[in-house]
Amino acid sequence: MRTPILAVALSACLGAPVLAQTEQQPPADSLPGPILEEPMTLARLGDIISTLDPEAQFSGTSVRMVIEDIPVLIVTDPTADRMRAMVPIRGTQDMTAEELMRVMQANFDTALDARYAVANDTLWAVFIHPLRPLEKNEFISAIGQTINLASTYGTLYTGGALSFGGGDSVPLQRQLIDKLLKKGEEI
User: What pTM did the predictor assign?
Assistant: First the structure.
């Protein structure tokens, strides 16, 4: 019997063998599911954004906002059920291979739900998600993670919510996410 490639890759990453599941699982409809919020709409997303930044600038399905002096662009497409939060970091013209490698490594272990991405000769911190299932706290955390990812470029390269490893920086990075979540409690 050949070992599936995914199991080998997971074993290499996790440092332990990954075994194929052979037990019978209960039907998916019999498992308890999470309590879901109402579907996210542009109006609801606008209310959340306005709470986080009362001076946010709305233009159709896009929003420009500023959090902690960092510009954030939110682009939505309700027809395609997509939402994207983006923070520009720097131009890519003079990025070295080592810098590109480092952001790819961070995408694997410390970027979390936000990611580094390249478009139009710019390095971005981005969070991309389907719009309707997006929950309030998930969105607020994503904004914090995206800003943290941009802010820690060149140093820790982290979204700040969780990290593999410890240290003094994790609580400091988590402060922004906690602050934004607290603002969102009233929504």
Answer: 0.71
